[in-house]
Amino acid sequence: MKKYLLACTALFLLTGCSAKSTESTQASSNKTPLSSSSSQKLHSSTSSSTAMPQTIKKFASGDYSAYTGTYKSELDSSLIISADKIHYYAPDQTLVGSVVLNQKTFSKQTTSPSFSRTYAFNTETITVTFNDTGDKITSISLSKDIYNNNQATIFKYSTAETSLPFTEQEALKILQSSKGFSDDDSYFLATKYENSYIIQVVSKAIRAQGGSGTVGLYQVFSDGTNFLVKNNPTTGAYDKIE
Predict the structure, then answer these.
(1) How do residues 81-135 score in pLDDT, each as one tens digit?
(2) Which residues of 19-56 are buried (b: 16+ CB within 10 A; e: fewer)?
(3) Nearest alpha carbon to residue 115 among 104, 103, 128
């Protein structure tokens, strides 16, 4: 009888242990594991929030087509961005030169919002900052600007216009080519007038003899049109000489 009781007790203990083990296994199995798809979604979400936008990648390779337009500073200097070039103009709209942004001039970048790319420019640096989605330039900063007492200058989007300004140099080239004037025998005094230039041509030879040397006053337009004019002292306008 004792043997029988001991055998039953042992069987009962084994059964209880088995049940607990089964419950424990089931409870463990009821915990929902992180599926591979969930893991991929989390990774994708994290990656997309910090991925460099495609438009900025194109900008880095020299394709500026997503950001074309005129960016102006408070000094009235400007950066004109076309699809593949950037031109820098002084406050008087004379061309300073091209801004070269490539791997040779590249300095550093910010790869998370807000995105930015910094390049060497002459003895300064120029930093282009983009919005969080990378589809717009929020500002362009020139670290040391000779037209701003060597202080930083900020350029911001102004207009979609990308045509280059009509400059004094271009007006002089048009007049010299049209009339045959040269720097060897003449001085040129140019004044911006509306959408044209008024250029006073002064003969060096006549000036050397004591005269005023003025041989003509010309109005020059960007399309190449040019003609003699005279100043109207009453209105201040320039009238064409027929």
Answers:
(1) 999 999 999 998 888 889 999 999 999 999 999 999 999 998 899 999 999 999 9
(2) eeeeeeeeeeeeeeeeeeeeeeeeeeeeeeeeeebebb
(3) 128
Each residue's pLDDT tens digit, 35-83 = 444 444 444 434 444 689 999 999 999 999 999 999 999 999 999 999 9
Q: Which domain holds residue 222?
A: 168-240
Task: Work out how many domains the chain is built from and give that number.
Answer: 2
Is 26 a member of any domain? no
Query: What is the rounded CA–CA span in Å between residue 88 and residue 92?
Result: 11
How far apart are the C-alpha atoms of 62 and 72, rounded to whole Å?
21
Domain membership flag for residue 11 = no
Q: Is residue 224 part of a domain?
A: yes
Tokens of 131: 């919005």
Residues 149 and 68 in one domain: yes
Amino acid 71: pLDDT: 97
Contact predicate 118/130, CB 8 Å: no
**Does a structural domain hold residue 113?**
yes
Shared domain for 154 and 174, answered yes or no, is: no
The reply to whether 123 and 151 lie within a common domain is: yes
